Amino acid sequence: MTDPRLADLLASVPDLRLKTDAGDLEHYGRDWTRRWNPAPLAIALPGTVEEVQGIVRWANRHKVAIVPSGGRTGLSGGAVAANGELVLSLERMNKVLDFNRVDRTLTVQAGMPLEAVHNAATEHGLVYPVDFAARGSCSIGGNIATNAGGIRVIRYGNTREWIAGLTVVTGSGEVLQLNRALVKNSSGYDFRQLMIGSEGTLGIVVEAILRLTDPPPPTNVMLLALPSFEVLMEVFNEFRGRLRLEAFEFFTDRALRHVLAHGAQKPLEDEYPFYVVTEFASNDEATEAAAMAAFEHCMEQGWVADGVISQSEAQAQQIWRLREGITEAVARYKPYKNDVSVRISAMPAFLQETQALLGEAYPHFEVVWFGHIGDGNLHINVLKPDDSSDADFVTQCEHVTRLLAQALVKHGGSISAEHGIGLVKKPYLASTRSEAEIALMRGVKQVFDPNGILNPGKLFDA
Ligand code: FAD
Ligand code: MLT
Ligand code: ZN
User: Fold this and answer.
1) Can you give the residue ranges of the FAD-binding PCMH-type domain (predicted)?
2) Which of 149, 207, 272, 302 could be bridged to 225 by S-S, CB 3.0 to 4.6 A?
3) CATH number at residue 152
């Protein structure tokens, strides 16, 4: 270890685990975007809050940037370290610290994988309801830093709703205990909420107090085949009106083709252009009848052409795989990902405009649509053709994203619904946030991170 800065780091934080092998720098320096070449200075794997504090103080002395790092499943480049940063991986801080039955809270270290959080809640007969396909590898700290959404937002909301308290280390190395699991706390600015979704630019989340809730009632999962995009919101309104929805997700025939090629089972005899996966409470004859009534009404109206309802847990999982398997199935095409949202009421007009826009703009690329339509959140993935260079492909996609950003301004939407801004969406932040807001964000960053050492260049430039 020849770098004198790293020698000083080890002198300041004596038991710190540090990795500098080329393979580790590569592994920890990138996220799921795979667009930037990793080039971190080193990887620090602290085991305690005090070690995190020591690292931050060291970084301030040497003016070394820190990239907080969870599971690196992020889709916006937030955890990328491509400029000599120190990656601060929370992966060793992955334990349950406390369960409080009265408060119904679980206190965990930030590096705990989401699925481990689910399992820990289940052990106590409760659930942590934020959920999505990266559950096995993303961390709760990363979920908090991106305000992650997922497949159950329609019923439970985003990560933001489930955070009762946070312990963070700020950019100047102070440890803050935010909200301490209080249900009511009208004592000024809520820094806990400010930290949620701040993408590692204001503080390093080291511990979180998570709210838990009762398990949902028994549910059923239905796959619906739709003849056109235009009827999507009609079907949503019909099902939402009659049932307690736990999820309402959509994808196109192209998405289905990729998932089937990736090993999923064909769900219906015929092919259709659009599909919905919906999960709803189904615990008695009345709810089962309501589901059938919604389905039959949609069939009569011509909004649904075919469908299947799960008869077992295994079949429910098979149906879910069709939706949840899309990200992995298209990953080999290095997709350019749009993750946009509008108010649910604005969705029909936005869908119509976006469909026309992308049809014209991308005649040569395969575009795969899917998303959390019940939350007004669309994922539009443009697949890179094998014969196109990464740089050319991204340039062409960015041109189209500028047009999409204009449509979002018109419809009052957001350029990032749930993945965060990171590096990928940074050029388009102004389509969603006003100049005055971005100036205030810079001011806030200055307060929490005066030397600009926490994830600089992500979200906005200083
Ligand atoms: P990372 O990628 O490691 O980091 C993400 C950001 O958080 C970075 O800016 C990083 O610096 C910061 N960060 C990480 N840990 C901390 C910390 N302890 N303190 C401060 N900052 C920190 N996202 C959704 O919202 N909904 C989905 O449905 C969804 N599905 C996905 C499915 C797949 C298959 C994949 C690969 C990704 C999916 N994602 C989804 C995206 C991703 O999983 C989420 O953004 C997740 O919250 C990132 O967690 P992570 O631990 O991997 O964070
Ligand atoms: C999803 O909804 O599947 C995730 O947000 C991942 C993605 O957009 O690829
Ligand atoms: Zn999503």
Assistant:
1) 36-215
2) 272
3) 3.30.465.10
